[in-house]
Amino acid sequence: MTSPTQRTLAWLREHKWVYSTCSGFNSFTKTRWDCWGFADYVALDPSGQIHWIQITSDAHHAERRRKIEKIESAKRLSRSSAVEVWTWGLKGPQGTRKTWTLRVERGIHLTTKGYWVWTEMAY
């Protein structure tokens, strides 16, 4: 397993989440597309909560957050479901073997305030 997407799908299967892809590649226009402009996957956790997931590597985490913050549909989705950035990076104490670690941040757009609040999630 090498890509963040492969790691995420393995994690979702292992934790019994139901998921579906909602992104792809248009071979005619040679462009990638995401559902609602940001989501790579939509998933249901075992409790039935909906998660709109943007997957990337650790180096691009902040970039993906900024992208989501500009999208009107993400603001609306965050009111009723989880809008999340899932990133993978090699982490561990200095001098020891590093392991792939999942980092998840959930964003909620505060309509009355006009800004996003991001919370680190532990699944």
How do you describe this structure in short?
With about 120 residues, this protein is α+β, with helices and mostly antiparallel strands.
Keywords:
123 residues, alpha+beta, 6-stranded mixed sheet, 8 strands, 43% strand
Overall shape: globular
Query: What is the multimeric organization of the chains shown?
Result: single chain
Class based on secondary structure composition and strand pairing: alpha+beta
Total helical elements: 3
Helix content: 10-25%
Order of helices and strands: HEEEEEHHEEE
The beta-strand count equals 8
Average the pLDDT over all residues and give the rounded result: 94
Low-confidence stretches: none
Percentage of β-strand residues: 35-45%
- Alpha-carbon distance between the two ends: 20 Å
Our Rg estimate from Cα atoms comes to 15 Å
Largest sheet: 6 strands, mixed
Spatial ordering of strands, largest sheet: 1-4-5-6-7-8
Counting structural domains, the number is: 1
